[in-house]
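Bug #77: duplicate submission created two jobs. Keeping one. Sequence:
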Amino acid sequence: MARKLTALALVLAMLLALGGCGGKAPESSATGSQAQSKAESKTESKVSSQAAESKEPASSQASQDGGVLRIVTAGKGSGIGFPAGFIGYFERIYSDPALESLARIGADKSSVEPWLAEDISVDPEALEMTVTLRQGITFSDGTPFNAEAVIKNWGYYVENGSNRFKNVESFEATGEYEVKAKLTEYDNSTILNTCVEGGWMISPAFYEENGDDVVYTTPVGTGPFVCESSNLDSEIVYTKNENYWQDGKPYLDGIKITLCADATTAMTIFKSGDADILLFPDTTQAQELLDAGYHMLGSADAYFPSTSGFTFSSGVEDSPVSSADVRKAICYAIDSEAIVEALGGELYQFTNQLAVPGSETYNDQVAGYPYDPEKAKELLSAAGYGDGLTIKATGSGAGAEAFFTLIQAYLAQVGVTLEIDLVDSAVYNAKRMVAGDDNYDGLIFLQGAAVKERYFDMFGESPTHYARSMAQYDDVNGLMDVIKFSTDEEKVHEALMDFQSKIIDEYCLIKPMYISGYLMFATDSVADSGLMETHKGWWTPADCKLQ
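Kept job's structure:
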């Protein structure tokens, strides 16, 4: 116990010395048009998971229609009007008032529910997906939302090299409100990929008339608001769409998003009472807001939760971490829970595997690596490193520096010297991406997503992240095939449980440590925004109220 307390003291001291490192604020911006129609909401679910409580104030009788929601955030982005070109989820947050998708993630944070679509089905035998659309919906420029519009929007994704349509051979309109897609293979993620992530709809007429430059900053969709104006360096202004297809919505008169040059300015505006919602404060600011009694919106386990930790160059010949014993020793040597607490406190959720605790992909039988420095020393000795060793850790940015500095203090106590190599984001991505041009050696900071659809980024036949330096195991890749292709839900669940056990307990290929989402705060006046509720990349502007 004395040794554990000493290590934690070092961790906290180093964290204070770093001045409290936090996340970088995202960027984005826009401009405008107008929309219309009606339809009742009918949903269809697929896949299940846990739900989590929001810290946002619930709607009350004091809520009333009207008012302008004021959002403040730091930075700007590459554009908000062309979803096929989006590079981050923050762009979707900025564009959500105007744009909608064919389907959405449900309240359980994993099922898929039709939205602009009325029904979506996949026939695994015929290798065909059928999408039936809601009728009577128009884009904000007055043009109809129909099958031809979907075909053109899907075409934009394909033309822009989206990987969401990898198993789609062709698609066509088979009726005014019906689209069929022919598949090259069955994939459990087909609806998620094509109708949620690749299902955001813009007006084809507006795009064809105005071209890329205008559309990238001008969201013209079917949403509850119309983009009145935008300046990529200052603000985005939305006004109520009087012809929105859901009767009686939206409740707000408008939305104003102020884009600040830095997080400090955004924080000052929020605390002064000149904004209702603050997006993307760093962890130090977030803790200050929590202490002051502000409401943190949603929860870290909203769909596509970010997972942080590190991976090993387990597949690099002659690397010390090519030994499973060394990898396990490193994991036992660090007090993961203490590090997570020091880095993020209640802002981060500890995990010992590539899953959100309690979710459908979480295996509560996984032991993981509880803090045990004596066990670490035994394993190092057995691997031939009883006299110690030196390894490298690669990361980018202040967050990675703080993270590895804390780990460095623990590893030193078991004779492992950790050399921290901080590189710019381009070099980091070149090392972690399979398509990059450089291997990493030792440890590299993990940025992943704790959802089964993204396990294929690192594992399986065609991984895209980290795998160039990671050892590959046939049994793990075989489980990936079951998770991806099987129509038997019980077999998929069993494969998910085995997958977690193998990559953590058996092979120790990666060391996930915490789950995090976008940090967002609101005043008591905001109700039903949906921010960080079901998916970290979108919200419910049509339902939002001021009270």
